[in-house]
Each structure stands twice: as C-alpha cells, then as structure tokens.
Known about the structure:
Blueprint: E1 7-10, E2 15-22, H1 28-45, H2 50-66, H3 69-75, E3 85-91, E4 97-103
Antiparallel strand pairs: 1-2, 2-3, 3-4
Helix pairs in contact: 1-2
Amino acid sequence: MKSKPIEKTRTPDSEAVTVFLDLSEHCVETAARSEHRRLTRKAIEQTEDAEDLAGPLDLLHAFLTGTDFQRVRTEDPRLAGGQNLQVVLRRGDDGLPMLKFFLG
C-alpha cells in the first residue's frame, strides 16, 4: 500500500488530523487496517514520536470500529479499491470519521 505521510493542520480551536489512504491496490477497509498497523509499529519503534501518532491512530481506530464496510463499498463502488484513487480520512464537524475523495 502506498500511503502518504500524516498531515496535521491547525484550526483555531484544535489540531485537525488527516490520514491519506491509497485505494489503487486495496479496498478502503484493507487500506485503513494496513495504515493502522504501520502507524502502530512506528509508535512502538519510535517512542519519542508516539504522541504525534496518537491522533491518527485514534482516527483510524474510530473509522475501523464504527464503519459498516460492506455497506460502504456497496453504496460507493470506488471504495472497493483497484482504482487510481486516494481518500482523505478526517473527522467531520460532528466528530465522526469522514472521507474525501481525490484522484491519485
């Protein structure tokens, strides 16, 4: 899986965490699980940077545990993967994980 680095952007009230997922080879669920595993390994190996990874790990965990992936892939076939597509995972105004699409 080709993942881009975690991007953090500052907002007036807090720091917004953004995770990029590449769907060219995997569905959104597999891409999210792979990124979660990668960040977990990185947090274990580099304890000094572990605090920076807490936000993305929390976001990915909320996405993985709170999403009906079968329904999501049925409703939007782009999320089944195999396309030149990347998605941005972030929290919406309601605090829930949300996806934004863009071509890879």
